[in-house]
């Protein structure tokens, strides 16, 4: 069933942490756009990540919520990078319909050296490795995973490569993250993280129109291809490419205003926004279930003064168990 469109007279701006689906009928384009504020800031500030790490993780979160909110089933969608650079792991989980959690792993020594040398571009921080998209619909189905090499200057370029190779749908992804320095209601200086993004896909009624030259090469080069890029998609892609990173993160622009700037001549239609939340799926019972699989030797090695402490990497919540409690559960 199609999502109801907002109509004139009852329109409200979505605001931060709401994914806005949109459609440009004149260009056969559908997509999603978002600006993340308090939800993202809570995730990043919880871990106090260095700025280069926070910026990368913020873009992964944006990409995850843009794609995850399009799922029509119950399950989990995960975006993850693994590389040999200073930031060797970025991961974001989206549990339908609205819950997000994320964390990053990095080598402090290697990161400090990279920053000192001015090597803070995404490809330098991530190194060689892979970007994986995983869809898990639960225990009654096999997870699906799509993988692409970390072969690009930015995460949006790498994501674009994935869509060209795996989805076979002309797709343009834009991602941006920024630090905001301002003052709170009391006039005190404060620091916040913001991020934004947009994904646009060409979905004409005639499938043969999707046979674009940019599906056969990373830069849209038409050499060696008999297919001419569809005029509608060429226009849409060019419009999306005009977006400045600042527009994606500026709280004064807003998602709907950005979409209007891009597509008003073609008539952009926006649909009901989807709010996303910073919510972890960990729980005391889940952690206890993991500890039940420990052997007596592993339990003994994990305890300190008769207590086992487990901290969730995503939300930093610490769960404490008495050794007797865990040992009884493991029997």
From TrEMBL:
The keyword Cytoplasm applies. InterPro entries: Heat_shock_Hsp33, Heat_shock_Hsp33_C, Heat_shock_Hsp33_N, Hsp33_helix_hairpin_bin_dom_sf. It holds the Pfam family HSP33. The keyword Transcription does not apply. One of its GO terms (cellular component) is cytoplasm. GO terms for biological process: protein refolding. GO terms for molecular function: protein folding chaperone; unfolded protein binding. Residues 206-229 are annotated as: Disordered. Keywords: Chaperone, Cytoplasm, Disulfide bond, Redox-active center, Stress response, Zinc. PANTHER family: 33 KDA CHAPERONIN. This is Heat shock protein Hsp33. It comes from Rhizobium mesoamericanum STM3625.
């Amino acid at each position: 069933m199609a999502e109801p469109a907002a109509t004139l007279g009852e329109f409200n701006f979505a605001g931060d942490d709401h994914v806005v689906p949109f459609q440009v009928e004149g260009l056969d384009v559908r997509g999603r756009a978002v600006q993340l504020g308090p939800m993202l800031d809570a995730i990043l500030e919880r871990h106090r990540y260095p700025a280069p790490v926070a910026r990368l993780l913020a873009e992964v979160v944006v990409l995850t919520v843009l794609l995850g909110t399009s799922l029509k089933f119950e399950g989990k969608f995960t975006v993850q990078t693994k590389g040999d650079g200073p930031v060797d792991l970025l991961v974001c989980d989206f549990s339908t319909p609205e819950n997000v959690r994320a964390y990053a792993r990095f080598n402090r020594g290697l990161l400090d050296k990279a920053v000192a040398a001015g090597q803070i571009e995404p490809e330098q921080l991530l190194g060689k490795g892979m970007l994986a998209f995983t869809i898990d619909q639960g225990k009654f189905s096999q997870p699906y995973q799509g993988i692409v090499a970390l072969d690009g200057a930015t995460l949006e370029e790498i994501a674009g490569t994935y869509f060209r190779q795996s989805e076979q749908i002309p797709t343009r992804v834009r991602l941006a993250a920024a630090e905001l320095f301002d003052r709170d209601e009391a006039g005190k200086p404060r620091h916040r993280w913001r991020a934004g993004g947009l994904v646009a896909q060409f979905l004409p009624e005639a499938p043969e129109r999707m046979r674009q030259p940019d599906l056969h090469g990373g830069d849209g080069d038409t050499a060696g291809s008999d297919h001419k890029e569809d005029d509608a998609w060429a226009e849409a892609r060019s419009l999306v490419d005009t977006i400045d990173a600042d527009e994606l993160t500026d709280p004064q622009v807003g998602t709907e205003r950005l979409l209007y700037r891009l597509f008003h001549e073609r008539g952009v239609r926006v649909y009901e926004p989807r709010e996303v939340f910073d919510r972890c799926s960990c729980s005391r019972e889940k952690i206890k279930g993991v500890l039940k699989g420990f052997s007596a030797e592993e339990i003994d090695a994990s305890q300190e003064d008769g207590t086992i402490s487990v901290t969730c990497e995503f939300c930093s919540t610490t769960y404490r168990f008495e050794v007797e409690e865990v040992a009884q559960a493991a029997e």
